[in-house]
């Protein structure tokens, strides 16, 4: 419950409690708070037992922690055999690296114009060859 409280925070809480309640009343306040926490836990446990008994025997292994969405998803991902098979056969890092490489280094069909790979001025001035009439797409006047 208080897993993230450090030593400095704990000392600060104790000093504030002594200043607010005083050293005489502090033991009684601590006793009242611990009694209240025990009652809340007992009420919670009895409510859980009542719910389990009402659900019936098919839910005997039901855990209320499974209702937490993170816990539910983690449990389904680790226990489902089909998902385990998919996870072992699919490497997400490799797929992402392949996509990144394809975006950063696109493959072109045309060969470079010069040995250095850069286009020369003469290559830029050349008019590209017209596609053959069979390959040219038909023009539809109504579509434009």
Tally the beta strands. 0
Shape: elongated
Query: Distance between termini?
Result: 68 Å
Largest sheet: none
Class by alpha and beta content: mainly alpha
Radius of gyration, rounded?
36 Å
Q: Count up the helices.
A: 5
Helix content: 55-70%
Question: What is the H/E order?
Answer: HHHHH
Extract low-pLDDT stretches.
none
Strand content: under 5%
Oligomer: single chain
Mean pLDDT: 77
Biased composition (Basic and acidic residues): 135-144
Organism: Streptomyces virginiae
Biased composition (Low complexity): 108-123
Subcellular location: Cell membrane; Membrane
Question: What can you tell me about this protein's structure?
Answer:
- With 144 residues, the chain is an all-alpha fold.
- Among the domains are: 8-58; 63-104, no CATH class.
- It contains five helices and no strands.
- It has helices spanning 7-55, 69-79, 81-89, 92-104, 121-125.
- The protein is elongated.
- It starts with 6 loop residues before the first helix and ends in a 19-residue tail after the last helix.
- The model has no long low-confidence stretch (mean pLDDT 77).
